[in-house]
Write a structure and sequence with these properties.
Blueprint (H helix, E strand, L loop, with lengths): L5 H32 L1 H27 L16 E9 L6 E9 L4 H14 L12 E2 L2 E7 L2 E6 L3 E2 L9 H16 L5 E6 L2 E2 L3 H10 L1
Parallel strand pairs: 5-7
Antiparallel strand pairs: 1-2, 3-6, 4-5, 7-8
Helix pairs in contact: 1-2, 3-4
């Protein structure tokens, strides 16, 4: 096997480096003469020098921060996925329901979806003043499921100041909750509202009771 002559390789490398340095020196002198003879060439050379300096600084910055050189622009933010949901809002006559649509964040958890739908119904219409139809403020304690039934446990609610309770508004509110939840979550067929774990309570009466004390 033929041995590698490192001395020859070293000599040729040195010659090549000297030749490149000579060419670079000659090119620099040529550019300098052109810059002295023409203002346009001088400005062009100045712009080229500044650009190279900025590129060098950027490369050094990327090296020290361990950043990809080509990662110039930030990544596009992930677009939030929203679903269109049908929401039924109790009207102020205590009998009818208003059908509206909402764009809501996509959720995989059924419990969180039920909480959001309940909040949308209780908040009322986006287009009409229906706050009188739901006179109480609610706090959802917990949500759980038993077969095809969704159970929503509410904390003690309070009626808002100077609010008149409309006859039939609570039954209409319960119907709006059940219709909204069952249509948006097909696996749920029934909705049961509790007040601190007790079913069948009149929520409006429970809300008014603390104000009478």
């Amino acid at each position: 096997m033929k041995k590698t002559d490192f001395r020859t390789i070293k000599a040729k490398t040195r010659e090549y480096a000297q030749e490149c340095a000579t060419r670079a020196r000659e090119k620099a002198v040529e550019l300098w003469k052109r810059a002295e003879s023409s203002r346009t060439e001088r400005n062009r050379l100045l712009v080229l020098f500044i650009s190279l300096a900025l590129i060098f600084n950027y490369v050094v910055f990327c090296y020290h921060t361990e950043k990809n050189i080509f990662d110039v622009f930030p990544s596009f933010p992930e677009l939030e996925t929203r679903d269109e949901r049908t929401v039924y809002i109790p009207d102020t006559d205590g009998k009818t329901l208003l059908k509206e649509t909402r764009l809501v964040p996509e959720m995989d958890d059924r419990g969180e979806s039920v909480r959001l739908l309940f909040t949308l119904v209780a908040a009322g219409s986006n287009f009409e003043n229906t706050s009188m139809a739901v006179p109480a403020n609610f706090v959802i304690r917990s949500v759980w499921f038993f077969e095809d039934t969704c159970v929503i446990d509410l904390a003690l609610s309070t009626v808002r100041e100077n609010t008149e309770i409309i006859p039939g508004s609570e039954a209409n509110f319960r119907q709006a909750i059940e219709k909204t939840v069952t249509e948006n979550i097909p696996s749920i067929k029934n909705v049961l509202l509790l007040e601190r774990g007790i079913p069948g309570k009149n929520l409006w009466e429970v809300a008014v009771a603390p104000k009478k004390r």
